[in-house]
Amino acid sequence: MQLNVNPTQLEEQFARKKELPFTLADLRNAIPAYCFEPSTSKSLFYFFLDISIIAGLYAIAYTLDSWWFYPIFWVMQATMFWALFVVGHDCGHGSFSKYKWLNNLIGHLSHSPILVPYHGWRISHRTHHANTGNIDTDESWYPVSESYYNQMSPIEKFMRYKLFLLAYPLYLFKRSPGKTGSHFNPSSSLFKPSEKWDVITSTICCSLMIVFLGLLTFKFGFLFLVKFYLMPYLGFVVWLDLVTFLHHTVDEIPWYRGDDWYFLKGALSTIDHDYGFINNIHHNIGTHVAHHIFLNMPHYHLLTATEAIKPILGEYYHKSEEPVWKTLFKSAKGCHYVADQGSPVYQQPEK
Questions:
Q1: Of the candidates 173, 175, 165, 283, which has an alpha carbon nearest to the alpha carbon of residue 235?
Q2: Domain segments of the chain: what residues?
Q3: What is the predicted pLDDT for the residue at 18?
């Protein structure tokens, strides 16, 4: 639905109807069965396509070695880093293939070059999906309470509400407000003891990438690192934070507490966005509602699944009809905290 509904009306609607008028089975049955089946060949095609484009961009930038081209290269390569991340994202959900070893291999090959600890991120992202829309237990991009907001320092508010598009590296080391634990530390509260060696493996892979970047810097100089890696990496961070922020930070989306929350209800507390021609480049990650309901669905079936469930979801389906830039500014200005009590609650603007 278009985001022109008064939040108060939505709150009254959800208060009257604690349970959704459809079930997870209803939605699953509406989707063609093939949408739930990953194709290893198709998934590998997208992986190698992204790798090929990234390699091609590097070849062009190195050959031209021109400052007029570098800004164009940074934007294009950052977008491809983000696309590669989405491939690894499928691996983390097990939707890349039916083979766990292949998912883990491609996941590391996709994420380690962009300094994402594959298993560490995979596990915390699993927590996010299992608790989406739950203020108390969601893992990322959840709103803070009004009382917490009131006690935040000016620096903390500046970091959270002004520099949020650069938050991802900090999140990997510190997690979100009110939570602790590094994605690189196997002893972190994020992980179970049985996940220790998975986390260590991914941390080693990222460490090797840092060593490789250090060797490149030693041989070719710091400017080489800035031109060919740091600037595209920063652009990738902005892409990652932009997309995840937009899909979970809208003032019309409800958040729940306690017994008022359950999985499907929370999964619907997200919103689809249209990124124009970028949709195909970053593997349709804008179809976020279907992804949150069926997280093990390959990205190349999300559009079909979305069209199949929209008639059932009706007014519970959220899609922004505004340009992405407009939604970004609207959400950045209007989504700062939620009420200390009640459920559902909606994000409110800064005081």
A1: 165
A2: 10-242
A3: 61
